[in-house]
């Protein structure tokens, strides 16, 4: 296939099975069945023999690939709450595919958490859904502690850096969000522009902060649920905002917290009759997640608050550039962060 990714039309023609067999002959046969994972994603992921996932990259990436490096590091640390890395396929010095173990019956959080919350609210509850938020906070803390542990792969995984870089990203996102968001949502965003800029300007006063390797795009969609257990996936980083490989862990935490907020927005959009229950869930779930994280890893409250606003600016830009129907989520979440 040269240096490019596998064409979607070739899924099911044995290319993924052949590659999976070469990397994991004990798991799959060379003629094993293939099926594409039917989700909206930048890459093409193919399940081979219900045992291996071959993720063909949208574009070849020069080695070393960020996700491969982080997963190799996590494996060396002994962090097992991610699908096992089986290897990476290289062509002419570029990574074209990443192979991982398949997690049986797995769904990402936009499926399992949305469905779970909907079902529980239908039954008049919400406590177990709040408990899941606590599990997510604890999982994120364990990930960050593992990523901060020196290994042969990442011998110096932590450091210090000015928060000025985060401020620069935030200002750029704010400008882009204001320019791209139209209609009533745009009007609501512009009405809050002064408060939003004031929130992100607090990043200037933070000074130097602890930085380390982080997930970089941590949200519930990156959390797979397989037979009751939770696993983190997709360490490629943020698709909208490129940044330093080492950033504050609060970037991840802010993204994860806001994604739980987004779960609630999705449920309320689909089921307006559950809106009151969603609001009650969010009042409890978001601080519960942060508290659970803080029991294992430090929380920088001021930095986290600013970065939660930054995360929503990212959502506006993401919606405008890639997924227009997502705009209602950013609109609702930002209005909740900065109410009138």
Write up what this structure looks like.
The protein has 340 residues and is an alpha+beta fold. The strands form 3 sheets. The protein has a 5-stranded antiparallel beta sheet, with helices on both faces. The chain has a 3-stranded antiparallel beta sheet with strand order 6-9-10. A 3-stranded antiparallel beta sheet has the order 7-8-11. The protein is globular. The protein folds into 2 domains: 94 residues, Phosphorylase Kinase, domain 1; 231 residues, Aminoglycoside phosphotransferase (APH), C-terminal lobe (Aminoglycoside 3'-phosphotransferase, Chain: A, domain 2), CATH 3.90.1200.
Number of H- or I-type helical stretches: 12
Order of helices and strands: HEEEHEEEHHEHHHHEEEEHHHH
Annotated CATH homologous superfamily of the largest domain: Aminoglycoside phosphotransferase (APH), C-terminal lobe
Strand order of the largest sheet: 1-2-3-5-4
The coarse overall form would be globular
Mean pLDDT: 93
User: Can you tell me the CATH architecture of the largest domain?
Assistant: Alpha-Beta Complex
Could you give the count of β-strands?
A: 11
Termini distance?
A: 55 Å
Strand content: 15-25%
Characterize the biggest β-sheet.
Answer: 5 strands, antiparallel
- The CATH C-level class name of the largest domain: Alpha Beta
**Helical content band:** 40-55%
Query: How many structural domains in the coordinates?
Result: 2
Defining traits:
340 residues, alpha+beta, Phosphorylase Kinase, domain 1, Aminoglycoside 3'-phosphotransferase, Chain: A, domain 2, five-stranded antiparallel beta sheet, three-stranded antiparallel beta sheet, 12 helices, 11 strands, 17% strand
């Amino acid at each position: 296939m040269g240096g490019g990714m596998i064409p979607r039309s070739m899924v099911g023609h044995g290319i993924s099975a052949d590659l999976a067999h070469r990397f994991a002959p004990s798991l799959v046969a060379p003629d094993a069945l293939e099926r594409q994972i039917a989700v909206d994603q930048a890459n093409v992921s193919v399940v081979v023999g219900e045992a291996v996932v071959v993720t063909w990259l949208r574009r070849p990436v020069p080695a070393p690939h960020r996700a491969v490096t982080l997963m190799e590091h996590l494996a060396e640390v002994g962090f097992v709450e991610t699908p096992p890395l089986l290897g990476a396929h290289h062509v002419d010095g570029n990574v074209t595919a990443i192979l991982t173990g398949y997690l049986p019956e797995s769904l990402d959080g936009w499926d399992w958490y949305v469905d779970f919350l909907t079902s529980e609210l239908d039954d008049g509850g919400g406590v177990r859904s709040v408990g899941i938020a606590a599990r997510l906070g604890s999982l994120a803390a364990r990930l960050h502690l593992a990523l901060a542990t020196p290994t042969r792969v990442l011998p110096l995984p932590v450091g210090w850096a000015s928060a000025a870089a985060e401020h620069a990203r935030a200002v750029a996102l704010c400008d882009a969000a204001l320019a791209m968001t139209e209609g009533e949502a745009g009007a609501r965003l512009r009405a809050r522009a002064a408060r939003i800029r004031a929130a992100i300007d607090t990043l200037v006063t933070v000074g130097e902060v602890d930085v380390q390797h982080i997930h970089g795009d941590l949200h519930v969609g990156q959390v797979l649920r397989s037979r009751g257990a939770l696993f983190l996936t997709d360490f490629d980083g943020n698709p909208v905002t490129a940044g330093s490989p080492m950033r504050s862990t609060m970037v991840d935490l802010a993204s994860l917290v806001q994604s739980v907020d987004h779960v609630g927005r999705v449920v309320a959009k689909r089921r307006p009759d559950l809106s009151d229950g969603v609001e009650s869930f969010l009042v409890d779930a978001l601080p519960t997640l942060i508290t659970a994280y803080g029991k294992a890893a430090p929380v920088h409250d001021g930095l986290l608050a600013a970065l939660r606003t930054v995360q929503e600016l990212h959502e506006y830009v993401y919606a405008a550039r890639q997924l227009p129907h997502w705009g209602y989520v950013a609109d609702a979440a930002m209005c909740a962060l900065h109410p009138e």
